Amino acid sequence: MLLEQGDFAQATSSRSTKLVHGGLRYLKQGNFSLVRESLLERNRLLANAPGLVRPLDFIVPLERWYDRPFLGTGLKLYDWLARGRQPHVSHHLSVNETLQRIPNIRAAALRGGVLYSDAQFDDARLAITLAATAAAQGAVVLNYTPVESLLREGGRVVGVEARDTETGATFAVHARAVINATGIFTDALRQQEDPAAPRIMAYSQGSHVVLPREFFPGDAAMLVPKPSDGRVLFLVPWLGRVILGTTDTPVPAAEMEPRALATEVDFLLEHAAHYLERQPAPGDIRSVYAGIRPLVSGAPGANTAKLSRDHTVLVGKGGLVTITGGKWTTYRRMAEDAVTRAAQVGGLDPKACVTADLKLAATEPAGADETPLHPDLTLTRTAVLRAVRQESARRLDDVLSRRSRSLLLDARATLAVAPAVADLMATELGWDAARREREVVGFLTLARSYLPPGSQ
Description:
Oligomer: single chain
Strand content: 15-25%
Helix content: 25-40%
Radius of gyration: 22 Å
């Protein structure tokens, strides 16, 4: 059974850079094992979810001739760690070839580029598909069902008490093992099990700017290798827009709905302006979104950009199994490790993991031939109804943020279409006028936070 406190993928899991990748910067850190594992899992996702994950070429622009051999060598190592399963083998591009693939790149200082391959996906759509796949395999998956407390017998955790937020009813779930897979909220449940348990999480905010495609009209993504915060930046074509991100800003606490800082938006636009001939301004931004990474902490005050993206499995004093850290690309391996440990804690017979080759539940386009509800969005009436009837959408935000990606793609257009979508959902779910009004007002408040800072 899966109990989700909010909607599926509501927090960090729907706010990524939409990349399934090995992580080039981890090569520089010497974390070859994480890169190798990530590339293996990337290839599994390409095979198991071809409708959700697709290969994507990336280009690293070169401004200095001596960057070419350094990057070329690193990318050959990347190819080798992928065990010969790269969609395209990395290779150098001339200036003209780079300009053809990235038409808006500044040509003045360009010395060519290096091309390599990874993949991209729709993170929220994959999470919802995983929930559907689990249900098809016999699991019970419930959103909007937070865990209120842990059940104990003789000091051991033997289940949870959960609450249905729609009815307010609470119920007990008994289990041989309980897994804490709560991401940025990991420490709260660990300390419910053991108030003396040390905090292990560090929080890093990653913000993204979404721009019209005319600023990045090519078919490849671009990696900016040396921004001032120590990360790498990406310009990624996605669902008819381009995503510019991400930042690495330490934050003090976990939040379900973090907001991008004005300084982060400025940082992203400044770095984009260095590389693009036509430069985006704040008024060009369609949406701004932020997520908080669940990082396993090193020393207090550690640089979050340098903290490992490896995952960690822990077992508490009462037997609570915690899985935390990691990244989207390695989610399947994280789940395998957590379930294996939980089976040991619960005294269950060992079984071979079947997910390495498990095809994910197919998703079908909804209403693709219909007129969209707004000219700047692809959302249709059929897509809204399908989200409610088949994909567990219970709130307006579920449809506009995650079943469709409307809010991330165009915040202003989504503000305009929200009342019409609420009308459709009210009919399907039996909302009265007061509930519909609460949904609209609450969503409009949330959606304004996706507008560029200063324009809310």
